[in-house]
């Protein structure tokens, strides 16, 4: 026997494929539909509790908006995958609480995907946006399969699990592509000064992962890291007789490659500066 809670899922499924110019939002539709418990007790889904993505105001550049909406899409796709994994045994699939969670995640995922569609990336982020679009479509397909399974009251949705995993991987690739584009954009700019508090955290994490804190090995490791920080801070383009662009490229590359190890970052700079000066 079909659960009347399927009505909400059908509303989501229909609107996921509806153009952004649709007159009613998913939240408006969901807010007007009630879930029926087996005993006949009705509950109303509070649309304010699920409209977390659509209500967000983005402040910043277009790339910031892209990064934020991509993060929202990834978060909700992971949540969808988590619900799919919950239902593998088949018991959760028939529970009203689980189906209500599917509805909430579906609303948030749809909102994030709509916001992603509003992004107008410049050419630097075209590759990342292409991946994000692919992932968004795949995540929507996974959601549609799950909603179809609920509508038919048949827990057959292994393809949805596969697609959600694929969407997660592709969203993560898109995030990495944004990182690459951002790095290329800022590679010739001066690197930020090393923050002492952050540096201490990095050094403690690096040395603590190799030696017991308080041991001679740990203390020697910390001393080496601190000496490297001092060497990096005291190095500049004029001091090594390089032009600013060449020096910034070396520093930013080494900083990116050895973000958790200042000693290696320092050695990286020394090697590349020496190589550059012999060219």
Protein model, in words:
The protein is mainly alpha-helical and 279 residues long. It folds into two domains: 181 residues, A middle domain of Talin 1 (Up-down Bundle); 82 residues, no CATH class. Helix content is 65%, strand content 2%. It is built from ten helices and two strands. A two-stranded antiparallel ribbon has the order 1-2. Helix 1 packs antiparallel against helix 5, helix 7 runs antiparallel to helix 8 and helix 9 runs antiparallel to helix 10.
**Overall body shape:** elongated
The number of strands is 2
Percent helix, as a range, is 55-70%
In whole angstroms, the N-to-C terminal distance is 77 Å
Instruction: Write the CATH fold name of the largest domain.
Output: A middle domain of Talin 1
The total number of structural domains is 2
* H and E string: HHEEHHHHHHHH
CATH architecture label of the largest domain: Up-down Bundle
Q: Strand-residue fraction?
A: under 5%
Average predicted confidence as pLDDT:
81
Low-confidence stretches: 1-60
What is the CATH level 1 assignment of the largest domain?
Mainly Alpha
Major sheet: size, sense and barrel closure?
2 strands, antiparallel
């Amino acid at each position: 026997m079909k659960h009347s809670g399927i009505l909400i899922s059908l509303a989501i499924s229909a609107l996921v494929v509806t153009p952004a110019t649709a007159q009613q939002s998913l939240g408006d539709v969901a807010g007007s539909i009630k879930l029926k418990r087996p005993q006949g007790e009705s509950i109303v889904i509070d649309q304010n509790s699920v409209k977390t993505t659509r209500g967000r105001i983005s402040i910043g550049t277009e790339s910031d908006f892209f990064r934020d909406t991509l993060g929202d899409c990834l978060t909700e796709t992971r949540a969808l995958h988590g619900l799919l994994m919950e239902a593998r045994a088949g018991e959760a699939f028939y529970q009203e609480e689980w189906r209500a969670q599917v509805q909430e995640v579906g609303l948030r995922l749809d909102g994030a995907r709509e916001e992603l569609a509003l992004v107008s990336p410049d050419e630097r982020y075209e590759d990342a946006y292409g991946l994000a679009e692919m992932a968004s479509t795949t995540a929507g397909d996974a959601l549609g399969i799950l909603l179809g399974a609920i509508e038919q009251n048949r827990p057959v949705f292994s393809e949805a699990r596969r697609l959600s995993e694929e969407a997660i991987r592709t969203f993560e690739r898109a995030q990495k592509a944004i990182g690459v584009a951002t790095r290329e954009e800022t590679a010739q700019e001066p690197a930020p000064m090393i923050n002492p508090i952050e540096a201490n955290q990095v050094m403690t994490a690096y040395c603590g992962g190799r030696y017991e804190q308080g041991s001679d090995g740990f203390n020697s490791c910390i001393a080496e890291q601190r000496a490297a920080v001092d060497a990096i801070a005291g190095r500049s383009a004029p001091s090594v007789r390089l032009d600013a662009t060449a020096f910034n490229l070396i520093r930013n590359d080494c900083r990116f490659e050895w973000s958790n190890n200042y000693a290696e970052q320092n050695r990286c700079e020394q090697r590349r500066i020496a190589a550059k000066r012999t060219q």
